[in-house]
Each structure stands twice: as C-alpha cells, then as structure tokens.
Amino acid sequence: MTIREIIEQNERSYLSPFAACSADTAGRDRPVSQDDVRTEYMRDRDRILHCKAFRRLKDKTQVFLSPQGDHYRTRLMHTLEVSQIARTCAKALRLNEDLVEAVALGHDLGHTPFGHAGERALDKLCPSGFRHYQQSLRVVEILENEGRGLNLTREVRDGILNHQMKTIPSTLEGRVVRLCDKIAYIHHDMDDAQRAGIIREEDIPEPLRAVLGDTNKEILNTLIMDLISSSRDRDDICQSDEVRDAMMELRRYMFAHVYTNPVAKHEEIKVDRIISALYSYLSEHPDELSGEFRGMLNAGEQKERVVCDYISGMTDQYCIHRFEEIYVPKSWDVL
C-alpha cells in the first residue's frame, strides 16, 4: 500500500461524513497518473504554490497603495492569512485541510495590480467585464504553463471560482474558504487601517464591540469560534445570526471609514489612468505584449481579453514600469 493510499484510508476513517475525501474527487480535465505520496488535493496545493501567479502576489496591493512601511499586507499575506484561518476551521470541523489549503492559496491568483482599484479599472475597459474570481479560474485553467493551465481538480476550481459571496461552492471546504476570506480581510484591514492612523480600535461602534470583542484579536477569535460552533456536525458552513449580523455591520463600517477613506484611496485615480493608458496602448500595439500572450493572439484569442490577461497579471511595480517605459520621456545626451 502506498503512502497516498494510507492517507486516503485515514481520511475515510477520520474526516466528517460531510467532508470531501481525496479519493472521491471528480478528477481533472486531463487525467494524470496517481502519486505514491500525495493525494490529488495535496498535488493541487503544490501546483498552485509553485506557479508564477502565486509568486507575483507578494508585490500586489491588498488595500493600501504603495504604503510606506514594511508591515502592511500584500495580496500574498492576505492569501496566507486566509489559508491559516481556513485550515484552523477545517481541522476543528474534520474537513479536508488539503482541499481547503489548495482553494485558499488559489482564490486570488487572478487579482490585478493595485487591488480592487485595478479590478474596477479593468472591469470598465474589458468588453466582457472583469472579475478577479473569474480571472483566478482563468489563470489556473489557461494562463499558467504557457496555455496549458495547472490542470487542477474540479473541487479546487469550484472553490476558487465561487469564493465570492454571490455563489456557493459545492464542497464544505470551499465554503470554509469563502467565509474565512471575509473574516481575514476584515481583521487585517482593520489592523492596517489602525497602523495608518485612519481608525482606532476604540472607534469601532460599541454595539459591535459588545458582540465581537473590543480588540482586533478578540474580534478575530469570536468570528472563528462562532463559525466552528455554528457549523459542527452540519452539512453547511454558517454563523450565528448575531455574529453574522455584527460582522456584516462591521464590514459596512470598514467600507465607510477605510475602503472609501480619502487617506487610503487618494491615489486610486492615478491607478485608473495608468491602467487605461496601458490598455489603450497595448490594444493598438499588441506586438508589445510578451511572447506567451502574442501566442494566445495567434491561437485566436480575442485581443481585448488577452490585453486584460496581460495587465491583470502584472505586479504593482511592473505596471508602473511599463507605463513609464511607454509614456515617460527618457533623458538623452547630444553627441
């Protein structure tokens, strides 16, 4: 018996009856031979961890554009915090941690440079619209590996696509990531906003603090423990009514005082101009796309879609670099 088979056997004896066992995966679009050590969800986790799009997350904005400080979250740090919180919940609920980790690590692979400001800019420009969760799926299905994608299992792809609140993943593991994504960003965005001096812990309205706690640490602990206690032995991932309502009210507070705060967002108009200029120029000069994207054009992909793919994959600094390269005059010497 291989190590993988032992792990799969252990899953059946230990995991919740509502969990997704690795041996029961719906599989991949392109079948592959099984690994002697890793389950299918472990392999998906590793494929995501080693892909180029994952590495680029370290230089993409979470909330604050070009912050002056080493401790503000990047998109990569957000991803890792989602993974950690989701794995804690999965372990407590006896769900498949490997599936949870794979979905969590892959859920934001399609995010743009400059966070949601970049996403909004591309959504206005791309004829078919732009949503980062749809782009994350496009990254793992098409864009990685020079058009071959990562060939992930259907459960992981379903969790990546449906991690936003309007749809529901087919597995409890995907639903854990979906909710822990919200828990993570509410917590760390509050922490970053306090570090920036935009809000203080004591500014959180008293009715919310009475339910969730007085400090960031207490709020995070309340949200995690409530998810676990509300979801135990159930074929669903949920929260108590009181905590869910308080969390959503806290989210509205964050939108009013942080996400739309001029201190945090005063640079966003520049983001719109940079991305709009790049989109216009590259649409007119597709020969200046990198080789793999020119190859997509030659294969019949729509030009506007490929330009969006190219720009959305950029890090913040590379986006600025390309803009300067195209639009900023260079100094020269007269001989």
What is the helical fraction, as a range of percent?
Answer: 55-70%
Structurally, the number of domains stands at 2
User: What's the CATH first level of the largest domain?
Assistant: Mainly Alpha
Largest sheet, in brief, is: none
Low-pLDDT runs of 5+ residues are none
Ends: how far apart?
A: 75 Å
Q: Return the string of H and E elements.
A: HHHHHHHHHHHHHHHHH
How many E-type strands? 0
Number of helices, counting only DSSP H or I runs of 4 residues or more: 17
The CATH fourth-level homologous superfamily of the largest domain: Hypothetical protein af1432
What attributes characterize this protein structure?
61% helix; 17 helices; mainly alpha; Hypothetical protein af1432; 335 residues; 2 domains
Q: What does it look like?
A:
By secondary structure, the chain is mostly helical. It has 2 domains: 37-265, Hypothetical protein af1432; 268-324, no CATH class. Helix content is 61%, strand content 0%. The chain is built from 17 helices and no strands. It has helices at 3-14, 40-49, 52-56, 75-93, 97-106, 115-125, 132-143, 154-161, 172-195, 206-212, 216-231, 241-259, 262-265, 268-284, 291-298, 303-312, 316-327. α4 packs across α11 (216-231) and α8 packs across α9 (172-195). The longest helix has 24 residues, at 172-195. It starts with a helix and ends in an 8-residue tail after the last helix. The relative contact order is 0.12. The mean pLDDT is 94.
